[in-house]
Amino acid sequence: MPLQLQHEGYSEEKLGLLAEKITCRETQASTLLALLGEPDHYTYPSIFIYGHHASGKSHVTECIMKELELPHVTVSCVECVSAGLLFEQVVMGLYGSEATALLPRSSSILDFVRVYKQLSSQEPSYQTRYIILDRAQLLRDMEANLLPGFLRLQELVDDNVTVIFLSEIVWDKFRPSTGCFEPVVLHFPDYNKGELHQILTLDSHPSYSPELYSSFINIMLGVFYSVCRDLRELRHLAALNFSKFCEPLERGEVKETDTHKLWKNIEPHLKKAMQTVYLREVSSVQWEEQQQKEEKEAGALKGLSAYAHVELPYYSKFLLIAAYLASYNPARTDRRFFLKHHGKLKKTNFMKKHEKTSNHLLGPKPFPLDRLLAIFYSVVDNRVAPTASVFSQISSLVTLQLLTQVGHDDQLDAPKYKCAVSLDFIQAIARTLSFDIVRYLYDFL
Amino acid sequence: MSKRKSRETHMLLGECLSQVWMLLPRLWECCCFRHLLELLRRTAVHGESNSVLIVGPRGSGKTMLLSYVLRELLEEKDVNKNVLQVHLNGLLQTDDRIALKEITRQLNLENVVGDKVFGSFAENLAFLLEALKKGNRSSSRPVFFILDEFDLFAHHKNQTLLYNLLDVSQSAQAPVAVVGLTCRLDVLELLEKRVKSRFSHRQIHLLSALTFRQYLEVVCTQLSLPSDFPDSRFSEEWNNSKLTEDKSVEDVLQKHFNISKDFRSLHVLLLLALSRVTTSSPAIQPTDLVEARRLCAADYKANILHGLSILELCLIIAMKHLNEIYEGEPFNFQMVYNEFKKFISRKSRSIHNFEKPVVMKAFEHLQQLELVKPMEASTTKIQREYQLMKLLLDHSQIMESLQRYPQCPTDVKQWAASAFA
């Protein structure tokens, strides 16, 4: 049940309209409204609002400003590459685009304060003006005096203006080393499962009943809630997968009340979505095409991962396998793996002590070119002549970023490399060559 | 009647802040206020050059003191006619060149037309010094130079502005008062030798020496309405509410006092409490203050941890265990994933076995929230999974937020309590 927003400065109907637009955020909106006070009162010079991504910060602030018709300007700091762009947007939003002519090019905060003072003396405000800075964490990377300047803007320009900062990062990470004017810090908590359900069911499809959409949202939240609570992502996934959910209904196989059958139909689909669309390995357009194709090809659901599409020539694959073995096996174990008549591998004290740290946890180690070639020749089944084409494949592997070159570019006689692929990838490649790589890895002995 | 009451209640929101004007100077009347007033009066009336630094932590009232003194001084007619004021701020004037232009603009010297200042830095400096040097004690007007964020001026190249201003204040030229306001106690260390020697080493320290009793009195006076409030019956009721005598209110204020004595944070607390006053409850209740304190003193990172998904929380617990086992050594994603897999295979009933890329995305979300930070700036030479990271959370923060986490599965909680049981 929505709480009633009460405030004396504004009419009941405006507040009612506002309450309709912001669902599940009534407490935060009322705290913010109480802080803003009546339009002609001075508000605290700076307010800092933090909360998770897509927790309603910009939405609530924008709605309050628009519904109650307060003079404001919203600037997203992502768009402002330089401080001058930021000032220009603020002046344009508060005083109109002709006023930006007063600002010099690439203005500093001093010019901004001077121009603001001039404009505010020409057009005195009877209401508090609000400057809303979205993604405020980027202000920390701009000039050092920008953040402290904005925090005390009310004092610097001597006018009724308040700056509201919206950010994902907590206030502790913003504070400059010599301190600054501390703003009022407000927290927008994340939505819980019930609230997410309530908000997601707001955009139900017109041709189906809201109960059907609600049950779909339930199923989807059941799959995705433990992984992701971001409202935007969930909305995107819901929009993409709803048509697939309704397929059995359209085909006439099930009725709307048959939730179990609908669940059985959609669940593997959602699991696949988690591995592909959620990870952005596949674009949403491709995903939708794939959905339509699946009706005709009732084959196994293949992975749509990008990895499946890398095609390498025969020797390049062996070079990559050799590089992986060189990176993840310690050099002294090469004898045991690659020589026909090797002795037993004696375990020294050193090895016994450090057995637990597997190389797969620490990362690949660099190896010289000679070692790579030695392993390569022993791994490839037939005899290979050391021609330039083999060597050029090594450099093309480096360009593909499957190998990384370690050390200086100038070292031509003994270049060192590191293998930059994961175990799953190399296993997939080894499978195409019917090469059992696990047998050759020291960590899996 | 209630509507009028409500209007008045909300006039408080603006007036409360202006009440400080009447209150704080009473506390300073002892020394610093008189001292500063005398100093500036000597410059303005008797033509003596002075320099002084006002030092105090953030929010202790330096700017307020200065503006109060200036207001008091400018009420005298002969001062008001003669004195010129130049206000500079270290945040705005980041360079000596810009600062000099601002000075010439504020003094309305002849090379200013409209808003633009003509001439190069050297020319402006020469012009300004000429203008200041020509005068003497009797014939030229006294100038007050007020430098806010004084420590930032000390970072300019060669400290030319400071050198020149203090030089003028030491020699027998136009009477000049240089007043610097800063929050750094070691500001004199920042000055070069030649600048330091020209400074008069006069410092006014604004360190609050209030006891808790005096603090309570201050709170009481700040929350009471002035006598000229339009509705006298309402103001009487308000002033008699005896809020500070309540035990819970005293506890809250004691905790706040123990953390910081300055008035700015007190204002935020009182503002949050005041914003809960509505027509239905037209007085501040003790619960309002308790609630305001809870808002002020909330742990920000714990609030962020509250909104993480279960997978991300498991990753944080895995990192906590790694920190305990390896005593704070940096870890990489592969190690965290390994710990997570151990948990899934051995103990978990409720967590699904997620694929590695999904876990990687959760890890990157933690990085985006700045709960996990790479040890060095990211180099493309190292794969993402093997980059060394460190956790920016404390053991106690994690355990506390686990308590408050909604619907936390019990096996996750048990895993967090010990890695081995």
> What would you call the structural class of chain A?
alpha/beta
The two chains with the largest interface, and their residue counts, are: A-B, 66 and 69 residues
Number of domains of chain A: 3
* Low-pLDDT regions of chain A: 298-304
Widest sheet, order of strands of chain A: 2-3-4-1-5
The global form of chain A is: extended
Mean pLDDT of chain B, rounded to whole units?
82
Question: How far is the N terminus from the C terminus of chain A?
Answer: 62 Å
Largest sheet of chain A: 5 strands, parallel
CATH topology of the largest domain in chain A: Rossmann fold
Estimated structural class of chain B: alpha/beta
Helix content range of chain B: 55-70%
Q: Which percent range fits the helix content of chain A?
A: 40-55%
For the record, the CATH class of the largest domain in chain A is: Alpha Beta
* Radius of gyration of chain A, whole Å: 31 Å
CATH superfamily of the largest domain in chain A: P-loop containing nucleotide triphosphate hydrolases
The 3D shape of chain B can be described as: flat
GO cellular component, one term (chain A): nuclear origin of replication recognition complex
Keywords (chain A): ATP-binding, DNA replication, Nucleotide-binding, Nucleus
InterPro entries (chain A): AAA_16, ORC5, ORC5_C, ORC5_lid, P-loop_NTPase
Domain ORC5 lid (chain A): 213-280
Keywords:
heterodimer, A: 445 residues, alpha/beta, Rossmann fold, Arc Repressor Mutant, subunit A, 3 domains, five-stranded parallel β-sheet, B: 421 residues, disordered N terminus
